[in-house]
Amino acid sequence: MTVMDNLRLDGKKIYITGGAQGLGKSMAEGLAQAGADLAIVDINLEKAQATADEIAADTGRKVIAVKADVTNPDDVDQMIETITTELGGLDVAFNNAGIVINTPAEETSFEEWSKVININLNGTFLTSQAAGKYMLEHGGGSIINTASMSAHIVNRPQPQASYNASKAGVIQLSKSLAIEWAKKGVRVNTLSPGYMATDLTLNSEELKPLIDIWNDWAPLGRMGKPEELQGIAVYLASDASSFATGADFGIDGAFTAW
Q: PROSITE patterns this protein is in (predicted)?
């Protein structure tokens, strides 16, 4: 068995929340290219289905679309049941759904704060919990939770206290789960991207003025490309990362190394 063999995902069953677009879609493409069968989970079923159809056509893998609200426990339980039934199991849970609201802290309503925390942190707990229960009963697995470099730094110039707090919580939650499940066959890690040049970011009127500022501060002088996260996604989903658990993998072009 070579290292390249260990990186293959043939036969693995994986879901990714927030997988219909952006970073989730790009990482889903990489996982399918490495041989995995996928469930694209999103609140927008139409977009999820379009992404699933596109990836299936490009890779020849089985890819299904599942609608779920990650903040709703019943939705999450049904999501796991649907995925395990239609894919025939679950080896890797990729909890990637998240949002950001840029509002100064003194102007942030409790509704805005709660929305960010509910999707980013509570949603990650519910999906990790549900996937973990299944994996504990079926021989183990790998859970990957998307955090952010914003868990480690305070971004500038945009105000995003709720997002930063939620993503720091994702890392500590994931470490806690990793310790609880370490001897039970379930690995839990986090992926912390830096600024990434998704279509949504590049075309956002709100964010366009910030891109030059971010690039000026970036050691590499640019944002990351979505496909530059595919390698770490495949690694964490694969048997090559069998000794990796409770770790945070920062892919930010050294932005947090200042």
A: ADH_SHORT (PS00061)
List of residues 6+ apart from 187 with CB closer than 8 A = 140, 141, 142, 143, 178, 181, 241, 242, 244, 245
Which residue numbers in the chain have pLDDT < 50? none
What angle in degrees, to the nearest 10, is found between the helix axes of 110-117 and 161-181? 30
Active site (annotated) includes residue 162: no
Amino acid at 49: Q
Contacts of 109 (CB under 8 A, 6+ apart): 103
| Catalytic residue (one of 26, 128, 142, 148) | 148
Indicate which residue of 12, 13, 25, 167 is catalytic: 167
Q: Is 235 marked active-site?
A: no
- The CATH superfamily of 3-242 is NAD(P)-binding Rossmann-like Domain (3.40.50.720)
Confidence at residue 104, expressed as pLDDT on a 0 to 100 scale? 95
Model pTM score:
0.96
pLDDT of res. 84: 98
Say which of 15, 163, 195, 235 is annotated catalytic.
163
The rounded distance, in Å, linking the Cα atoms of 120 and 170 is: 8
Cis peptide before 104 (omega within 30 of 0): no
Residue 225 falls in the annotated catalytic set: no
